[in-house]
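Input record (Table S2, row 542):
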Amino acid sequence: MPAPKVQALRALRCRTYATTSRSALTSTARAKAEQISSEWKGTSATGENTKNFIGGEFVESKTSDWIEVADPATQTVLTRVPETTNAEFDQAVASASEAFKSWKRSSVLTRQRFIFELQHLLRKHGDAIANSIVLEQGKTFADAQGDLLRGLQVVESASGIPTALLGDNIEVSKDMDTSVRRLPLGVCASIAPFNFPAMIPLWTIPMAIATGNTLIVKPSERDPGAAMIIAELCQRAGLPEGVLNVVHGTVPTVNAICDHPAIKGISFVGGDRAGKHIYERGRKTGKRVQANLGAKNHAVLMPDANKNNALNSIIGAAFGAAGQRCMAISVAVLVGNAQTWIPELVERVKKLNVNQGFEKGADLGPVISAASKKRIEGLIASAEEQGGRIILDGRGIQVPGYPNGNWVGPTIIEATTDMKCYREEIFGPVLIIVPADTLDDALAIINSNPYGNGTAIFTQSGATARKFENEVEVGQVGINVPIPVPLPMFSWSGNKASFLGDVAFYGRSGIDFYTQNKTTTSLWKAEDAIGNKASVDMPTHH
Ligand code: NAD
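Output record (nicotinamide-adenine-dinucleotide complex):
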């Protein structure tokens, strides 16, 4: 039996945040919020509850423990997310277990057709998903569309599932064959972070389902809307009930996932603390676990770089999505003369428009919560206290019309690698600048950092790029490319402290993660095939 969820933890949790009335939304935002509530069964942006999705039904939770989701630009409460109860969680697992019996036997072409239909519906309803992301997460509309599109690419690559699941077969001895089949694991679970509410669920839903598994998704409790719309689109695409279920909540729900014996695999994306906990707790009960964790991504600017491209690239990668991307460039290592580019960098960054995500010309929105804003501002202050140089200070920024937003303006700090602002993942619009004399010095800085998610170099020299690519110990490398996220014909390849597990997300690794091999060795001796002439006598079965 799964371990009971810790009820006491719930009672202690503070779930209500400072909120303002719905009228704080602009008329544009209000219209989009109303549209979301009226068109989608599982989510709301007008204050009603988010539902669980269990056994093909969007059901209201019976919990007494609700978490408010507030628009980070105005603090307007958009919806309330349940801490799914033990009974509801068990129902979701039971439903996924029941559905697995038939889904695992569905033909690979049936699963491929589902993927085709899902990709069509995601494109058709992309704006609804993006609207939900702008409201709950705070991204700009264009960035929210990008969030969905990067997930859609995984859906599209999953349409090649019949080829991806082809097995090997060889005659190993005279008349003896061995063949391998790639079979699903069973019920799997996917635990998502707040920063890509569409992309991360779409890293796992198509891969798990196309390979014949059933899945329980637990979206971030801070922005579950996109996942709920995606779940409804899966249903509309013809997915049988129970193949996909969505439950909600925080630590108790996550622990229930880790402990339930029927769950065979967990995909986690999020921060270090939760990731280590889930990896250890999930492995204890024998589950396969893949966990993408935090990051500190360095971009090296060589003095021979194309300055215009290099500066624009790192500005986009550092401040886009308010720095809340696991592949955001959070450190710029300026080598030699590239250090003279700082004033130009600052001038360009000052032109970025911080605003609510539906506002025209917005480059970056608010950070996810007031607590996050406070933490980011604390890290900026720590740089000041430890002798760092604040070149551009985004604290205290005002955005007209949005007095209550979680605003942090773009910030640039020159620091050294022993300072707290360098050592910790800030996850906000803050770029740390570290000077270096040579490429070797830059490589030493990056390779001493515990994280290994992404890195980039800007140079016009092939030799420099090649040396960097060979010697840097980070799993995803960009050469004149600031955010080198591999497309899903490849697999995610973050390493070192940015990943726990053995098998990565999506692409070929994604197929490997969600399947186990079964080999069959069979012997059919040729001499046992008797008779070389058809018998025309009445068969008597003697
Ligand atoms: P988070 O770790 O706070 O939350 C992620 C998920 O874990 C959520 O569903 C949450 O409910 C759950 N959770 C949170 N704390 C928990 C705990 N103590 N025990 C069990 N479960 C817990 O992460 P976040 O703030 O939502 O997302 C930001 C983090 O995610 C950043 O560190 C970022 O680098 C990382 N991230 C990594 C990647 C990657 O691919 N490497 C991608 C996106 C985000």
